[in-house]
């Protein structure tokens, strides 16, 4: 979410400003008396400011965690639970209102993907979450359903088709082929894809059930579950990474280097991200 990105840039300094204001409350009260101002801050007002600080501090930490490069849907779920637990311990009117608003937002945005990812990551934790009475982080029932099968198969097929498209889009391969051979190759490849999909359609349910049983009993993911797990881990909980890419491209393609080709900008951004991840 773009709001998380903006929070790191603007909202964090605002919280720091409020914290400094509260630390200087004695000096502020004395100065107001010294200048003869009619404005006064009662103990109740200072107490409300302190409640505001206590309620916003978990959000500050959560936003920083969500905006990390290694954040996933798993870390996002843990972060949101952390906020709700901290708000619950504060037991104030403001914390209760913030907690309720956050719960409503979570229910609106939470999808089936998070539940599947938690199951693949830790089946025992998945079972514990399904037994919770709190419906904010609603989990799917562990029973193998047709809907789950279709969704998991779609993820697996998308991953396979993506690899297939990357192979077909190789410019060096197409340049060495005539149009007729290229068309024939495309037809053969499409036929091969259909036959592979038919085979997977026949055995997918049996294999997946077997891998799910092994995952629950031994904690070992099979080929399909590992592929799905890695696929889902690439989903980012926020759009911060996209914002970082836009910012990096803005630095690279400046007024001094305004004639860079699109391919060059993409390559430089990719290398920049690669080197940063290797640190």
UniProtKB/TrEMBL annotation:
It comes from the Eukaryota. InterPro entries: RNaseH-like_sf. This is HAT C-terminal dimerisation domain-containing protein.
């Amino acid at each position: 979410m773009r709001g998380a990105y903006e929070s790191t840039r603007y909202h964090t300094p605002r919280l720091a400003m409020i914290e400094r204001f509260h630390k200087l409350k004695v000096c502020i009260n004395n100065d107001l008396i010294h200048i003869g101002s009619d404005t006064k801050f009662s103990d109740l007002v200072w107490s409300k400011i302190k409640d505001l600080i206590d309620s916003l501090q978990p959000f500050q930490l959560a936003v920083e965690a969500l905006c990390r490069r290694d954040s996933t849907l798993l870390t996002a779920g843990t972060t949101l639970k952390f906020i709700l637990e901290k708000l619950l311990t504060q037991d104030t009117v403001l914390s209760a209102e913030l907690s309720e608003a956050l719960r409503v937002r979570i229910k609106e945005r939470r999808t089936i993907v998070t539940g599947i990812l938690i199951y693949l990551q830790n089946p025992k934790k998945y079972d514990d979450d399904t037994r919770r009475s709190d419906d904010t982080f609603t989990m799917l029932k562990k029973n193998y359903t047709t809907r789950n099968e279709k969704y998991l198969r779609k993820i697996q097929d998308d991953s396979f088709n993506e690899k297939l498209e990357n192979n077909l889009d190789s410019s060096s391969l197409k340049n060495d082929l005539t149009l007729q051979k290229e068309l024939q190759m495309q037809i053969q490849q499409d036929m091969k894809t259909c036959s592979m999909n038919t085979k997977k359609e026949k055995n997918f349910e049996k294999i997946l059930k077997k891998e799910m049983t092994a995952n629950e009993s031994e904690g070992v993911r099979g080929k399909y579950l590992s592929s799905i797990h890695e696929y889902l881990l690439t989903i980012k909980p926020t759009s911060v990474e996209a914002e970082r890419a836009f910012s990096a491209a803005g630095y690279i393609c400046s007024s001094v280097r305004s004639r860079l080709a699109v391919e060059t900008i993409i390559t430089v951004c990719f290398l920049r991200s690669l080197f940063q991840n290797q640190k």
